[in-house]
Write a structure and sequence with these properties.
By secondary structure, this protein is α+β, with helices and mostly antiparallel strands. It is built from 4 helices and 8 strands, in the order E-E-H-H-E-E-E-E-H-H-E-E. The protein has one domain: Multidrug-efflux Transporter 1 Regulator Bmrr, Chain A (Alpha-Beta Barrel).
Length: 187
């Protein structure tokens, strides 16, 4: 069964309601590397929260044209968003790739992009359940404000990713996993 994702998923300006600023609930994992293939844009959080963002347009095109079905060598039906090529931190530009996990990048079509999610320690945060256009940006706002001790380490700004699995099939009652790459710990 194909995963249904909202047509209007985008970072939008969100006003956090009282109680939304609860402490982050994190799980730390060691992730092996894998490839994601799909379609990408270059953007930043200032643009995305201004109402002139490009992420929403990418999602609309991806869903409307059923681009997930065109990705060769894809593994499963989950959608993955990879954040990479950070210019600096959450204030700088980054590459946003929307696609699926793939077993190979050898057969990609023209116009497709890919990113290797690097093997590293990641902290996994799961959004609250609710509308995707609200819960994902709200969780990112918490991440941006969280001190390293609350995240379980310092952000690497190498690769981060979001997992849209069966829990996000209903865009009005969805949960998404956000995986934040951490810098290696020094002994």
């Amino acid at each position: 069964m194909a995963l249904r994702v909202p047509l209007l998923l985008m970072f939008c300006a969100v006003t956090l309601a009282p109680g939304d600023e609860d402490e982050l609930k994190v799980t730390r994992i060691n992730e092996s590397s894998f490839y994601v293939a799909g379609y990408s844009i270059r953007t930043n959080n200032t643009v995305e929260t201004s109402g002139k963002g490009r992420i929403g347009r990418l999602w609309r095109s991806f869903i409307h044209k059923n681009l997930a079905a065109t990705i060769p060598d894809r593994i499963g039906h989950d959608l993955i968003v990879v954040y990479s090529d950070y210019a600096s931190d959450e204030h700088g530009d980054y590459t946003y790739l929307l696609g699926t996990r793939v077993s190979s990048i050898a057969h990609l079509r023209a116009g497709m992009a890919f990113q290797k999610v690097i093997a590293a320690s990641y902290v996994v945060l799961t959004t609250s359940m609710g509308p995707l256009t609200e819960v994902v940006p709200a969780e990112w706002k918490k991440i941006w404000k969280a001190p390293a001790v609350e995240l379980g380490g310092r952000r690497a700004f190498a690769t981060d990713y979001e997992l849209y699995d069966q829990r996000s099939a209903d865009p009005q009652r969805a949960q998404v996993e956000i995986h934040i790459g951490l810098k290696p710990e020094r002994n």
